[in-house]
Design goal:
The complex is a heterodimer of chains A (338) and B (322). Chain A is α/β, with parallel strands linked by helices and 338 residues long. Chain A has 10 helices and 14 strands. Chain A has helices at residues 11-22, 39-42, 52-56, 69-81, 96-108, 124-135, 164-167, 171-187, 292-306, 315-331; strands at 2-7, 26-32, 47-49, 62-65, 85-89, 114-117, 141-149, 190-198, 209-216, 221-227, 234-241, 244-249, 261-267, 282-287. An 8-stranded mixed sheet of chain A has the order 8-9-10-7-11-12-13-14, with helices on one face. Chain A is globular and about 65 Å long. Chain B has one domain: Vaccinia Virus protein VP39 (Rossmann fold), CATH 3.40.50. Chain B is built from 12 helices and 11 strands. Chain B has helices spanning 12-15, 18-34, 81-90, 92-104, 106-129, 143-150, 186-195, 213-218, 236-245, 260-270, 278-284, 289-301, and strands spanning 2-7, 53-59, 62-67, 73-75, 134-138, 154-157, 171-177, 197-208, 232-233, 249-254, 307-313. In chain B, a hairpin with a 2-residue loop joins strand 2 and strand 3. In chain B, helix 2 runs antiparallel to helix 4, helix 3 crosses helix 4 (92-104) and helix 5 (106-129) runs parallel beside helix 6 (143-150). The longest helix of chain B has 24 residues, at 106-129. The chains are: A alpha/beta (338), B alpha/beta (322). At the A-B interface, helix 6 and strand 14 of A face strand 1 and helix 5 of B. The complex binds zinc ion. Zinc ion (ZN) binds at residues 46, 48-49, 51, 67, 69-70, 72, 238 of chain B.
């Protein structure tokens, strides 16, 4: 059994606690949060701490860092120095220097696992797409178009995610980073970026919309729209290859506001006999469960126990995704109003 | 669990041309008499869950029963195996199907059935069985399908009769396309498939559903229903029960059929005596053909089309011999 601590007991921290409690090889031993005091309700045997620093003094194998972005970096670094394996939520801090600092310290402790929560990689639609693309049957990747947006809401302006000092960035850093991470999964690194970033609606110091065009060295173009004014919650990634296309739409959340998770598979069809050109036969897969969170934690435990390197969501993935976010900001000269 | 919905331009006319289908059915009825399929038939409970069957309808002299427990549809009494074997080997209907029906619809089948099935198998095999899996196909040899599969996997063809002995090698995947419904002893056929699988191997099945829209709407008038071929049409619950008996689990269940609505509309046109509930009649024969397509997609989403494709995963242990 690995003794686990969770730092930050908000919505995500609680979700992680449930996953830890359900995992046969993990035992939730400690929780730290300056505001929340009902840790006992989740796990009666759990020790309660006011601060992450206190928690890190406890004898634990691993910690989950589920805090606002402003304190993520220090906590990850301190946890490594305290000899703990670390699972941290994305984004890995507020700027590239944050994740670089984490990587510097990580390099000093090669026996410790560091994994970041890019759980979208573990969605069934993403895994199935990866398998189809790598099989080569759909040809060469040409372009992608990704939209990831949420509606904000009455509490949006008061949320810490909208506070430039705590969050470091807006919707792109909070949510759009997942789409940029997926772009990397499918197309690798991007050589060029053009963007428009701004505030269309919310009166906060961070962006509520980011539009970006990215081009990889071998010519794959990816379009991103990350939005906090998407009044209908939307996750949609279209991937076009020379022989066909994939459309990933929706994912399962508790409230299902992003729609069902589906994957459309279509193939280029120029067969005039059935006048299918322009409207090819499509197969649409529906996925009835989201195991991405469980898979992520399983993978973390596997890496801890075997010492094998993190393949999905390692610190280099986190750094590259963070760099893309910052390059999207930089191309339009956007700076969060710190 | 995932399931697939297909949208495309497949038509009943292209897949099952009426004149060919009528000729095939006429041969089937003649063969049923010629081989005395009704003689000495065996009463049986539900082949999926052993539940009790209640008479649902008669077709070509065969009694179809609906399982009161799992909803599967099955023929009982079921013809004797030796008579069925002669029907399939020597009958005019099967010969007509092989020599006329299939060749004349080969292009549309390749595009809408064989190609998608091969991709489905290969994609599931790639993600669940790893590189270079070994597959075996039960049932009639389908050269175009085998060619497609062999591009990415090693595939052997096993006897058309699933329950035949022999072929004791173990494989990663068993393909049973349109064969399990015709086994006189369904449990034995399913066990035979399971026995051929390595632990955690996959069974790929396509078959007709007892819960599908056209069978439920049309009953004995279902054009695609041929009793000596369709001895059992399992429901989803029926599959769960039958697979559980083999220690296998259902990992994918879809009904990506594209023809239920067209089949029902055709039947209504051909048979003015056929009465559907008025709102269903309006939906299936709606003047805007997009309505029919949307309705067909809805049936697929609800897993209520008649064409089933499923994947079952064998348990982690070797099967218990029977
Ligand atoms: Zn039954």
């Amino acid at each position: 059994m690995y003794r686990v601590g969770i730092i930050g007991f908000g919505r995500i921290g609680r979700r992680r606690a449930a996953l830890v409690n359900a995992h046969p090889r993990l035992e939730l031993t400690a929780v730290a949060d300056p505001y929340v005091q009902d840790a006992a309700a989740v796990s009666p045997s759990c020790t309660w701490h006011r601060s992450g620093a206190d928690l890190l003094r406890q004898d634990l194998h691993a910690v989950f860092v589920c805090t606002p972005f402003a304190v993520t970096t220090d906590l990850v670094v301190d946890a490594l120095k305290a000899g703990k394996h670390v699972f941290a939520e994305k984004p890995p801090g507020r700027c590239v220097a944050d994740i670089e600092r984490i990587r510097d310290v990580e390099a000093l402790f090669p026996g410790l696992t560091v994994k970041f929560g890019f759980n979208h990689r573990e969605h069934d639609s993403v895994r199935m797409s990866e398998s189809l693309i790598s099989s080569g049957e759909l040809g060469r990747l040409m372009w992608m178009r990704g939209t990831y947006g949420k509606a904000g809401g009455p509490g949006y302006e008061g949320d810490w995610r909208s506070d430039p000092d705590i969050a470091g960035g807006g919707i792109l850093l909070d949510q759009g980073i997942h789409m940029l991470d997926l772009f990397r999964v499918f197309a690798g690194e991007f050589a060029e970026i053009k963007s428009f970033v701004g505030q269309a609606f919310w009166k906060v110091g961070v962006e509520d919309n980011a539009f970006a065009l990215l081009r990889s060295a071998d010519g794959c173009v990816a379009m991103l729209h990350s939005s906090a004014t998407h009044w209908n919650h939307t996750f949609r990634l279209e991937i076009y290859l020379t022989e066909g296309y994939l459309v990933l739409d929706g994912f399962l959340t508790g409230s299902q506001t992003y729609g069902r998770e589906t994957l459309v598979i279509g193939r280029r069809d120029w067969n005039d006999v059935d006048s299918a050109r322009g409207r090819p036969r499509e197969e649409r897969y529906y996925f009835d469960e989201d195991q991405s969170w469980e898979r992520e934690v399983d993978d973390f435990v596997r890496c801890i126990s075997t010492g094998s390197p993190v393949v999905n969501g390692n610190s280099l993935d986190a750094q590259r995704a963070m760099e893309l976010v910052m390059r999207v900001y930089a191309d339009d000269g956007w700076r969060a109003a710190r | 669990m995932k399931r697939v919905v297909t949208s495309g331009d497949l038509t009943q006319r292209a897949m099952r041309p009426a004149e060919l289908l009528d000729a095939y059915l006429a041969h089937a009825q003649a063969d049923i008499l010629r081989f005395d399929l009704m003689l000495g038939g065996l009463e049986r409970p539900c082949p999926a869950c052993s539940g009790h069957g209640a008479p649902e309808f008669m077709r070509f002299g065969f009694s179809y029963q609906r399982c009161t427990a799992c909803g599967s549809l099955f023929v009982s009494p079921v013809p004797r195996e030796e008579r069925l074997a002669r029907y399939h080997a020597e009958g005019a209907a099967e010969r007509f199907r092989r020599e006329q029906l299939l060749p004349m619809t080969a292009d549309v089948r390749a595009r809408h059935a064989l190609g998608p099935r091969a991709r489905w198998v290969l994609s599931a095999a790639a993600s669940r069985l790893g590189r270079s899996p070994t597959l075996a196909q039960f049932g009639a040899e389908t050269p175009p399908l085998l060619d497609l599969l062999r591009a990415s996997a090693s595939v052997v063809q096993w006897p058309a009769d699933v329950t035949a002995d022999g072929a004791d090698a173990r494989v990663d995947g068993v393909i049973a396309f349109d064969v399990l419904e015709r086994a006189a002893d369904f449990s034995r056929a399913l066990h035979r498939c399971r026995r051929a699988l390595h632990p955690r191997g996959l069974l790929f099945v396509t078959t007709m559903s007892g819960g599908g829209f056209d069978v439920r709407m049309l009953g004995p008038r279902t054009a695609a229903l041929v009793p000596p071929v369709h001895l059992q049409l399992l429901s989803r619950a029926g599959w769960l029960a039958a697979l559980a008996r083999e220690g296998a689990t259902l990992v994918e269940y879809s009904t990506p059929g594209e023809l239920d609505v067209q089949a029902v509309a055709d039947a209504c046109r051909r048979d003015p005596g056929l009465r559907l509930p008025p709102i269903l009649d309006e939906l299936v024969r709606h003047e805007d053909e997009q309505v029919g397509r949307a309705f067909q997609e809805l049936l697929q989403q609800a897993c209520l089309s008649s064409h089933v494709q499923l994947i079952a995963e064998a348990g982690p242990d070797a099967p218990i011999p029977r």
